[in-house]
């Protein structure tokens, strides 16, 4: 493993925000699978979230810039598709940040049925904490989100899809 | 579509298997490109704001899937996704004619998307078992996104079929128009047999049986009648008159400004 000297690079990657949800970084969102250092430079194994996410370009550039600033001469960002990214990879700290930011964190995914139309778990309102919520649109402002309304405090809010 | 380079080592395939894989990946990508363009034509025009956003999301996902397929193709033949998407002529596109038909009314858009999503979900579900690992991984990724589409469009078909007499009439008319085209999704590609025998690609004939079971159950369950289908004069190699204008629109900026990197 690369334990002795990869730490500064991991720290630098924690400074790369998700462009669409800037309160969380790409490490705590589970998008970074590994950092390898060799004579060829620093290689980051990166797992895309949604395949059509327009933020992916920005994130890859952010990785390259952050590692260059941390002293890497050559940076390679490699796509890793296996295992696929899942919202279960988001850390508890990032889930708490999402909720504070007003986005309901995703319910555990597990291996859900292909044709299931109901949420596996009730979604909690990030403003008042009530579980008395209703999905109002199955798609939202970004590929990873959908829309809800809280029937207790009446506020609309966004929630992350569970994938 | 440039940042799709996959780095998995590409196994050595025989020439016939390789060309079958390239043909299938191209057909998948062309379906996604043309359908996403049709869906995106609703942007700013959908009947509800939430649906405007939903269709923009779906179009974006489908284009993301096209990026996956063309990225895989690039590892097989060194092709470039942008060149394939923006600089091929209509006769070179291998999409099913279903995906190039005009967007029509809301019922046509939703019924087509439902029929397509059901095909795509089943194809991806089967492709997860492919012995061609990069394909199995890409299928697993796309399937996680695609199932949201199927859930959404299945509900819309139900809502429209059971809504008002007018919505029922339009939904049945959409199904009558689209059914034979949807069956065209399952036409085997020439020379797919070798790749199929090697466990690399899903068997589309077997998928059609699963698909018929799924969509018949849903459509008849909401009171729609499955029309009789007669063979069409169109195929992935023989397009309708609607593809050329679609591509002229889709490819216009790239062809007018071939030097541009971002638009």
From TrEMBL, chain A:
Pfam families per the record? Answer: FeS_assembly_P, Zn_ribbon_PaaD
Entry protein name: 1,2-phenylacetyl-CoA epoxidase subunit PaaD
Q: Which domain of life is it from?
A: Bacteria
Organism of origin: Deinococcus oregonensis
MIP18 family-like domain: which residues?
Answer: 10-77
Task: Pinpoint the PaaD zinc beta ribbon domain residues.
Answer: 115-161
Q: Name the lineage.
A: Bacteria, Thermotogati, Deinococcota, Deinococci, Deinococcales
Q: Which gene encodes it?
A: paaD
From TrEMBL, chain B:
PANTHER family of this UniProt entry?
1,2-PHENYLACETYL-COA EPOXIDASE, SUBUNIT C, PHENYLACETIC ACID DEGRADATION PROTEIN PAA
Q: What class of enzyme is it?
A: oxidoreductase
Q: Which organism is it from?
A: Deinococcus oregonensis
Gene designation per UniProt? paaC
Q: What is its EC number?
A: 1.14.13.149
Which SUPFAM superfamilies does this one have? Answer: Ferritin-like
- The keyword Metal-binding is assigned to this record: no
Protein name per UniProt: 1,2-phenylacetyl-CoA epoxidase subunit PaaC
| A matching Pfam family | PaaA_PaaC
Which InterPro entries does the UniProt record give? Aromatic_CoA_ox/epox, Ferritin-like, Ferritin-like_SF, PaaA_PaaC, PaaC
Which keywords label this protein?
Oxidoreductase
| MF-aspect GO terms | phenylacetyl-CoA 1,2-epoxidase activity
Entry keyword Oxidoreductase: yes
**What NCBIfam families does its record include?**
PA_CoA_Oxy3
């Amino acid at each position: 493993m690369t334990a002795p000297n990869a730490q500064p690079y991991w720290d630098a990657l924690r400074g790369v925000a998700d462009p669409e949800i800037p309160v969380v970084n790409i490490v705590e969102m589970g998008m970074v699978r590994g950092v390898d250092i060799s004579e060829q430079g620093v290689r980051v194994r990166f797992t895309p979230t949604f395949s059509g996410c327009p933020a992916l370009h920005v994130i890859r550039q952010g990785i390259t810039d952050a590692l260059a600033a941390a002293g890497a001469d050559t940076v390679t960002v490699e796509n890793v598709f296996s295992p696929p990214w899942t919202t279960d990879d988001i850390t508890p700290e990032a889930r708490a940040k999402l909720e504070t930011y007003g986005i309901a964190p995703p319910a555990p995914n597990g291996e859900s049925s292909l044709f299931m139309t109901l949420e596996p778990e009730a979604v909690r309102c990030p403003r008042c904490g009530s579980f008395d919520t209703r999905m109002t649109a199955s798609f939202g402002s970004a590929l990873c989100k959908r829309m809800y309304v809280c029937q207790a405090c009446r506020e609309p809010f966004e929630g992350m899809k569970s994938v | 579509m440039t940042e799709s380079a996959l780095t998995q080592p590409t196994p050595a395939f025989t020439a016939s298997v390789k060309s079958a894989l390239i043909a299938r990946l191209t057909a998948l990508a062309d379906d996604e490109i043309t359908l996403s363009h049709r869906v995106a034509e609703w942007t700013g025009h959908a009947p509800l704001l939430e649906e405007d956003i939903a269709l923009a999301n779906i179009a974006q996902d489908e284009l993301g899937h096209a990026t996956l397929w063309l990225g895989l193709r690039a590892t097989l033949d060194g092709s470039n996704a942008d060149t394939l998407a923006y600089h091929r002529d209509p006769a070179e596109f291998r999409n099913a004619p279903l995906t190039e038909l005009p967007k029509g009314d809301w019922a046509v858009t939703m019924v087509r998307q439902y029929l397509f999503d059901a095909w795509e979900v089943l194809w991806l579900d089967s492709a997860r078992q492919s012995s061609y690992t990069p394909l199995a991984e890409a299928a697993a990724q796309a399937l996680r996104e695609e199932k949201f589409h199927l859930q959404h469009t299945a509900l819309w078909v139900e809502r429209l079929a059971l809504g008002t007499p007018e919505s029922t009439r339009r939904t049945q008319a959409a199904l009558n128009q689209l059914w034979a085209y949807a069956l065209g999704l399952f036409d085997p590609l020439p020379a797919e047999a070798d790749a199929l025998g090697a466990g690399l690609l899903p068997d589309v004939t077997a998928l059609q049986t699963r698909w018929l079971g799924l969509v018949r159950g849903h459509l008849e369950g909401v009171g729609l009648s499955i029309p009789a289908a007669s063979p069409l004069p169109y195929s992935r190699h023989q397009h309708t008159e609607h593809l050329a204008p679609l591509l002229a629109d889709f490819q216009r900026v790239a062809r007018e400004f071939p030097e541009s990197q971002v638009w």
